[in-house]
Design goal:
By secondary structure, this protein is an alpha+beta fold. Helix content is 60%, strand content 15%. The protein folds into 3 domains: 3-226 and 339-391, no CATH class; 245-332 and 421-496; 519-847, Kinesin. It contains 21 helices and 23 strands. The longest helix is centred in the middle third of the chain and has 146 residues, at 373-518. The chain binds adenosine-5'-triphosphate.
């Protein structure tokens, strides 16, 4: 058993026998048999075949088919299962299946012992079996190939092998015969040579038309097979080339799609990175810088991808153009496959023709017998008819093939046009994508520039904010330090406040002790200077000489009268004619401080009219300015002092002052702050909670000294006055200026500044009733003051506050822990000597 594979040109045929023997045929030996019996015939026929082959290569489609093959293609004797070849020197039975041939039997008829076949059929069969056995064809043999199979070529190669084997076996047979005897060797050689020469003559005889027809058709058929095999080989090459081109085109398309998808993915990633940059740019500038750098790196990678894509597109275009030039496209693969199938069909038809040819040759051999001459003729006639029919059908088949080929060519051209349109559309799409990505690249570049500008701006803002933050941090640290210092200062202030409060209490206690030591009742005497109009009335020297009041040089608080050397009047303090308003207030200010400490005080001016009571209490007001001046008396200075002290102690004391002015005229009360007489209500004096209160009296809270003085000035104009001999505007009533001191909404102290009416006698006044009430109230006041100065008497007697409205109103500030300060004003002129002496007697301590 053996296998055989045959290839043309680039392939090599190899045979593998059952006995493991291998034989390889060179390409040159595959075409023509080297049988020595056919050398000369092969040479002659090869020349003809070469000419026919060249003409067939020029135009395969127009090459007329061999009459023999054409006749056999429609032979009714064709069998698909088992086929047979019967040549003059070779016979074989086989079956085909694609690239596989199963050999049932094969033999060479040109053996030297073939002569025995004519004489003894039995011997011939024995030899045939023996020969087959010696050739290794014991049973069914198989020939396989990895290429589309050519039956004729394979069988020809098989024939070559068998002839070669036959020659070798003949040599072996000759060697065996040498053992039998050299005598028969010569006879056998001569017989073999004769038989070969006879067969050669029969084969080459031109007289026999059957032989001639058989040989020509046989080699024409062979040549056709060669041409078909060459065409098949060319088609196989073209198929391989198309497959390579198709594979390359597919690889390029896949690479292009992959690069295009990767570029789209990278663009999407880039957009996402740009969006991330906008969101995170304001959060962290350092991170934004990193993102920006990464975006720039990705842009560079995208630019590289664009370059790669452009190169790929150019390569694809080149391949497309190359394929256009060569007319090769992948779509050709389909008709090529169809063509391959057709070639296989043609081979199959050729095999059938070969099979029919063998049958004809067998019939021809049978017709060689003398008894079959008529059959030979008939067969020859039938053969000619078949050839004629085949020749008649051949143009039709060729035309059909040509039409089929033209149809396929048209289809291929249409497919090529479709591909061209697709290529154009792809080129257009590539151009659009290239334009789009160039535009997008520019847009992205502009966007990156804007981002960079914004980043630089943000960085500058960040630096500014950082500087501001540092400044704020420093300011905050300075603020904390300052706050700590302030806290320390607050603590220090609180400590100082505490110390001040304690010292204030100590001062108050000491002040109280001083007042108590000096006495709650203090009497000052103020001597009015001689006024200018008084100097015009009398000569100043005379006046000076006639002054009745002298201040003791040793004891400044003692006043002596010139006319009465024994009369000496003692006071707590004496203010001479040169004393100023400020001197008087400096002695009064401790009593004002007692009021701020919570005491009720009364400052009373007593004296003859025109001696300076009002001047001492109020002073002279400036018509334009209400402020303190050198002419300001105790009242405006007290107002200024109170608000000054309020401001000084406001840290730990909340002081509020309210003002009320009440006039006592002929034992009747009148509210001087209530200017409207129609609204004026009756004022009654009540004592509530041990405090004297005037019903319906108006008290007005004042916020500053100016407001207080404005009210006093206004009320002063409402006071009842009259022109006297000593004063053009003499006060004929008692006027009480009341200042209530509140601390934390509670009345704590009070000041009563009392400007009494003139104390002159009845003879000095024209209105006796008026003078009577004045004297009554003054007398009561004198009695009370006298009682207050005599503590022993104070205990034993009851103080007559209710005897006059004046003393009733001053009840809270006369006696007890209250403080009373009385100014006795006197005039030193001699004409007032009597009244001066009465005033000094009235209240001087000398009388006590
Ligand atoms: N110490 C003084 N220095 C300068 N002028 C004075 C002094 N005392 C009184 N005068 C002036 O004397 C005049 C009379 O004074 P004042 O009106 O004060 O007397 P009075 O006692 O209040 O009289 P009356 O009881 O009638 O009201 C005023 O013009 C006043 O300016």
């Amino acid at each position: 058993m053996f296998s055989k594979t045959k290839r043309f040109s680039e392939s090599l045929i190899s045979f593998e026998f059952a006995n493991k023997k291998k034989i390889s045929l060179p390409p040159s030996s595959q075409r023509v048999s080297k049988s020595p019996q056919k050398d000369q015939l092969s040479i002659n026929l090869q020349q003809d075949l070469l000419q026919q082959r060249e003409s067939k290569r020029s135009n395969i489609t127009k090459q007329p088919q061999s009459p023999y093959s054409q006749g056999l293609s429609k032979s009714p004797t064709l069998k698909s299962s088992c086929k047979r070849i019967n040549e003059e020197d070779f016979e074989a039975k086989y079956s085909t299946n694609k690239n596989r041939i199963s050999i049932n039997s094969a033999k060479i008829n040109s053996s030297p012992l073939s002569a025995k076949k004519e004489k003894n059929q039995t011997d011939y069969m024995n030899y045939e079996n023996q020969h087959k056995y010696s050739s290794g064809l014991k049973s069914k043999s198989i020939i396989t190939s990895d290429k589309p199979f050519s039956m004729k070529t394979s069988l020809e190669g098989l024939k070559y092998i068998l002839v070669h084997e036959n020659q070798q076996e003949e040599g072996v047979s000759q060697n065996n015969q040498n053992y039998e005897g050299r005598n028969n060797e010569k006879n056998n050689e001569e017989k073999s040579l004769n038989r070969l020469s006879q067969n050669r003559k029969n084969e080459t005889s031109l007289d026999n038309p059957f032989n001639k027809l058989t040989n020509e058709d046989f080699f024409q058929n062979k040549e056709n097979i060669f041409c078909e095999q060459e065409e098949e080989l060319l088609q196989q090459k073209q198929i391989q080339k198309h497959n390579k081109t198709l594979k390359k085109f597919k690889d390029l398309r896949y690479k292009q799609k992959f690069q295009r998808q990767s570029f789209l993915d990278s663009s999407q990633d880039q957009d996402q990175l740009y969006q991330t940059l906008i969101e995170t740019l304001g959060q962290n500038d350092n991170q934004s810088l990193k993102d920006l750098k990464s975006i720039m790196d990705q842009d560079k990678q995208n630019a590289n991808k664009m370059e790669i894509q452009n190169d790929t597109n150019q390569l694809i275009n080149k391949n497309i153009l190359k394929q256009q030039d060569q007319g090769e496209f992948s779509i050709i693969n389909i008709p090529i496959q169809q063509k391959k199938d057709e070639i296989i069909n043609f081979n199959h038809q050729n095999n059938q023709l070969l099979h029919d040819l063998n049958i004809c040759m067998n019939q021809q051999n049978e017709a060689k017998l003398p008894n079959n001459q008529s059959k030979i003729q008939n067969l020859n006639i039938d053969q000619q008819k078949k050839l004629q029919i085949a020749n008649a059908d051949n143009p039709t088949i060729l035309q059909q093939k040509i039409q089929d080929m033209n149809t396929r060519i048209i289809n291929l051209e249409q497919q090529v046009e479709i591909k061209d349109e697709k290529i154009k559309s792809l080129e257009k799409e590539i151009f659009q994508l290239k334009t789009y990505y160039e535009f997008k690249d520019k847009h992205q570049q502009n966007y990156l520039n804007n981002c960079l500008t914004n980043y630089l701006q943000l960085q500058a803002d960040y630096e500014n904010l950082k500087q501001s933050y540092d400044q704020n941090t420093n300011a905050q640290q300075a603020y904390l330090i300052q706050k700590q210092e302030q806290e320390q200062q607050i603590k220090l202030i609180q400590e100082l406040k505490r110390q001040v409060i304690e010292s204030e209490k100590i001062v108050e206690q000491q002040h109280e002790q001083i007042i108590q030591f000096r006495g709650n009742l203090r009497i000052f005497c103020r001597i009015k200077p001689v006024l200018d109009y008084e100097a015009e009335f009398k000569y100043r020297e005379l006046i000076q000489n006639s002054l009745t009041i002298q201040i003791n040089q040793r004891h400044k608080q003692v006043i002596e009268l010139k006319q009465d050397e024994n009369a000496k009047f003692f006071f707590d303090s004496v203010f001479d004619m040169n004393s100023t308003q400020e001197d008087v207030f400096n002695q009064t200010q401790p009593f004002i401080q007692c009021a701020l400490n919570g005491d009720q005080i009364a400052i009373i001016a007593y004296g003859q009219t025109g001696t300076g009571k009002t001047y001492t209490m109020e002073g002279v007001y400036d018509k334009e300015n209400i402020g303190i001046s050198s002419q300001s008396g105790i009242l405006p200075r007290t107002a200024a002092y109170l608000f000054k002290e309020k401001e000084r102690v406001h840290i730990h004391r909340n002081l509020v002052f309210s003002v009320g002015v009440i006039e006592v005229y002929c034992e009747e009360l009148r509210d001087l702050l209530q200017t409207d007489e129609k609204v004026q209500q009756k004022l009654d004096i009540l004592q509530l909670n041990k405090r004297i209160k005037v019903v319906n009296q108006v008290f007005q809270v004042v916020k500053n000294a100016e407001e207080l003085l404005s009210l006093i000035k206004k009320s002063s104009t409402n006071r009842i006055t009259d022109k006297t001999a000593q004063n053009n505007r003499s006060s004929r009533s008692h006027c009480i200026y009341q200042i209530k001191i509140f601390e934390n909404d509670q009345e704590k102290g009070g000041i009563n500044i009392v400007d009494l009416a003139g104390s002159e006698s009845f003879q000095a006044t024209s209105n006796k009733r008026e003078s009577s009430f004045i004297n009554k109230s003054l007398t009561t006041l004198k009695r009370i003051i006298t009682m207050l100065s005599d503590r022993q008497f104070l205990v034993q007697s009851k103080i007559p506050y209710r005897e006059s409205k004046l003393t009733r109103l001053l009840q809270d500030s006369l006696g007890g822990n209250s403080k009373t300060l009385v100014f006795v004003t006197v005039c030193p002129l001699e004409e007032n000597f009597v009244q001066t002496k009465e005033s000094l007697k009235f209240i001087s301590k000398a009388t006590f």
